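WARN no homologs supplied; continuing
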Amino acid sequence: MAQTRHAGTWTIEDRCASAWQYLPFDVPAGASALRVELDYDATAAVLDLGCFGPAGFRGWSGGARRSFVITSRSATPGYLPGDLEPGTWQVVLGLHRIPAAGIGYTVSAEVTSQPGQIVPGTRNEPVPPVADRLGRRDLPASAGMRWLAGDLHAHTVHSDGVLTVPELARFAVERGLDFLAVTDHNTVSHHAELPAAAAAHGIALLPGQEVTTDQGHANALGDVGWVDFREPPDEWLAATERAGGLLSVNHPYGGQVSWTAPMTRRPPLLEVWHWSWLDPHWTTPLAWWLAWHPAAIAIGGSDWHRPGSDAPPGSPTTWVLSESSDPQAVLDGLAAGRAAISASRDGPVLLRVDGELVACGADGTILTGPAGPKSRVRGDLVAFAGDAGHHRLVDPAGATLALCS
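OK structure emitted
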């Protein structure tokens, strides 16, 4: 057994020098388990926790955990199991919030060759599938395609959520969704669980990760590998593109997690509709969209973490016109701009179908385009000319009920 201990005080000056601080420890040959513990006064500061090995990224839990275990076969959620390669490893601390007086800390790293390490924070109980699931909505679609209801922003125990991947899959099915992107913060440890949970619960689970920094959050969607959150956002976009994925700027007007990071290029997606759109009468999201990148494909995300904290999955619902429910087909539909957003799965929807705008379940609403109100919707299924630009369905008081790019 080998143990390394670091202790000291982080100051605002340290935070200004670098948000990321690295504490080294050695892993000898033959080691089979690693345990790291962080101790500090969490009522006075916020320190994020992660780990890198000689070969690169091994996990991240941000401020959600104070300890983690990595073994060859299992790991604390947020961390990657696998052989512990010998050499110098690094505990990485993110200095997220530091008080004026500084914050004392200790970090201990314990390495052992003894088998049988218990990995904390995991739940392996079987999650039965939904017995009587909601049927899909019958929405008009182009030949050979169908509209799928989903959510592009949700979290599990692999970062700061409370549900396991199977529990989240079942919850999304209970909500009537066809697909869900699982986007835990700064990690891809959840990706290994997605195929089995998707098959067990009959839902498309899209691999994703929420690249998370003080200057903003962005979802990298697709099986693109780990995206290095320490790099500038332009590199997040480049890395995602190289791997064939899609990047979205998340909740750009979301309080203290609003987007403030500069970029020389614009990602193709923008999370226009998020729970931070507190009043649908506001036009703040539309103003941000048009100022940032009018050509961006508008999407929505609940940002689900836990009951009582965030909107449940599907609030709002992102609709994607897709050839199948395969995750790659859903991503292809997004990349092609075949997307729309509604406040809920069963509420009014505005779709683009074969060159027309089609309002579904929207009798009595008002179709509004870039220049303002255009027509009152009379009927449950009404087609309009497919004029260019973003369009919305609003109620007579001006609250947005649905929108499309």
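The radius of gyration is 23 Å.
OK
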